[in-house]
Write a structure and sequence with these properties.
Elements: E1 7-12, H1 16-28, E2 33-39, H2 43-52, E3 58-60, H3 63-67, E4 74-77, H4 84-92, E5 96-99, H5 107-120, E6 124-126, H6 134-143, E7 151-156, H7 161-165, H8 178-196, H9 201-224, E8 235-239, E9 252-260, E10 263-269
Parallel strand pairs: 1-2, 1-4, 2-3, 4-5, 5-6, 7-10
Antiparallel strand pairs: 8-9, 9-10
Helix pairs in contact: 4-5
Length: about 270
């Protein structure tokens, strides 16, 4: 944006990550960004969050209202689950897009979104925040000084949701449209089947909830360090884990992959 003009932002999804991370960040960067429209399936949440923002901020319950809003230059997509349809609609409407992970569920949809963004000349970015951690740049510079690389070991000690979020002052609503939520979940499961084929329910949840919902951050950090990414995993163990059971707590994971050139990846997600 030229001069001192601020980018006008629409926020789609006003849950915990929006209230605790993104909206406070946008407020700290108020010289560059202006929130003009917020959206949540809960009208209560949307109105409350809009009232907390400076200026006159529109509130809505349908993401299509945000992408159709001529006052919006860019959208941040913070809804649960995958974001392919919303990102597509926003790009087609000429908006820049920053999406929380996971962007989508299949490689085909990711490629289509990238091609669409290039065609309409808009930015499409996924919020892989670990790429921008100052330690990444420092570690990347040190990698060339330690000799031949033999082992990449990643250990994640993931706290429970309750330990991360229960103490935070987040406004919640009980008036979200359940049919819209069910339709979004059905879309995501259908894309999961495209990606994996017909697999037991536990495997599908492991893919969507853990791999592209959390472990993908570790792969992003590897990319930020200039390390090769695994094309496949040679060994994966999940425990305790029943692949046929849906709705179980995420298991611990151990995965080993050959990164080529004599380099092994040892990844633990606990």
């Amino acid at each position: 944006m030229a001069g001192t003009e601020r980018l006008r932002v629409g926020v789609i999804g006003c849950g915990l990550i929006a209230q605790v991370v993104h909206l406070p960040n946008l407020a700290r960067l108020a010289d560059r960004y202006e929130v003009v429209h917020v959206c949540d399936l809960s009208a209560t949440v949307a109105r409350t969050v809009a009232a907390r923002q400076p200026g006159s901020v529109r509130a809505s319950t349908d993401w299509r209202d945000v992408v159709a809003d001529p006052a919006v230059d860019a959208v941040i997509i913070l809804t649960p689950g995958a974001h392919g349809p919303i990102a597509t609609g926003a790009l087609e409407a000429g908006k820049h897009v920053m999406s929380e992970k996971p962007l989508c569920v299949t490689q085909a949809e990711a490629r289509a979104l990238g091609a669409l963004a290039a065609r309409v000349g808009r930015v499409l970015q996924v919020g892989y925040m670990k790429l921008f951690d100052p330690g990444i740049a420092q570690a990347r510079g040190m990698l060339g000084e330690i000799g031949d690389l033999r082992l990449v070991r990643i250990t994640v000690r993931h706290p429970s949701d309750a330990r991360q979020t229960d103490y935070l002052p987040v406004v919640r609503g009980r008036d979200a449209d359940r049919a819209t939520i069910a339709a979004a979940e059905a879309y995501e499961v259908a894309r999961e089947r495209e990606a994996l084929g017909e697999v037991p329910a536990g495997i599908g949840e492991l893919y969507r909830g853990v791999l592209i919902g959390s472990v993908i951050h570790e792969l992003s950090a590897m990319r930020g360090l200039g390390l090769p990414l695994p094309a496949r995993f040679d060994l994966v163990r999940a425990w305790p884990f029943d692949p046929t059971a849906a709705g179980a707590e995420p298991p611990a994971l151990l995965a080993v992959a050959d990164l080529g050139g004599g380099v092994t990846l040892d990844l633990s997600w606990l």
